[in-house]
């Protein structure tokens, strides 16, 4: 095809074997689209195309990826509202004939259907990071790190200490949108049992979202990147970087908060001594 179709928030460029979606930047464009930047969608990753009447004099052209082809949609698990669907192109109604032409052309070019056996659409690239309510999460391509916030983390997480999870030790990711009540991002171990899950605020493998923390455009690409790395077992290249030294003032503040937990009886003498030594070793 080799043509371009521009709509609200995005431009689609049609190639012989893929559709390149370039998202616009601007105050009206959803932040998730701006964070994604662009996505190349192989035709092999699609199982359908639809065209439907939209709202207020628009039409909507939509790609339907195969199940398992896109780590972003798999991580989202159906939680994205219609307005954040990255595969919808909204057009003025007067362009319906042109949109119908591209829908027919794409439909004729599709040859695959059913679940994909691997991800066919690239995940967001590492390094990625975001701030949750009870900690900061970072991902370098091979491991995930959680660093707890003294203002939000539970005593259980403080006792466990800051966490590092190698991709090789993970079996999946569970993302609950920060736009929903009690959203969180949980890392699932390889050997996840069938018992009752630990509440997110007590689980050292989970960061909890809250109002203004872990927004969709930061936490969902993060979850998708980790999920893709888990499925390919670390095929995402790590970003080499020297471990930064901690700010002494930050270490002092964390020790002060640890002392408060100790005085309140939430941390034992042994736990206090061990954690304090770990924090001092970071100076």
Layout of strands and helices, then pairs:
Elements: E1 4-6, E2 10-14, E3 18-23, H1 31-36, E4 38-42, E5 46-53, E6 58-65, H2 71-76, E7 88-92, H3 96-109, E8 128-131, E9 135-139, E10 143-148, H4 155-160, E11 163-166, E12 170-176, E13 184-189, E14 206-208, H5 216-232, H6 248-263, H7 269-281
Antiparallel strand pairs: 1-2, 2-3, 3-4, 5-6, 6-7, 8-9, 9-10, 10-11, 12-13, 13-14
Helix pairs in contact: 6-7
Features:
single chain, 283 residues, alpha+beta, PH-domain like, 2 domains, four-stranded antiparallel beta sheet, 7 helices, 14 strands, elongated, DUF4429 domain-containing protein, DUF4429, SHOCT
Condensed summary:
With 283 residues, this protein is of the alpha+beta class.
Descriptive overview:
InterPro entries: DUF4429, SHOCT. This is DUF4429 domain-containing protein. The chain has 283 residues and is of the alpha+beta class. The chain contains 7 helices and 14 strands. A 4-stranded antiparallel sheet has the order 1-2-3-4. The chain has a 4-stranded antiparallel sheet with strand order 8-9-10-11. A 3-stranded antiparallel sheet has the order 5-6-7, with helices on one face. The longest helix is centred in the last third of the chain and has 17 residues. The protein starts with a strand and ends with a helix. About 4% of the residues have low confidence.
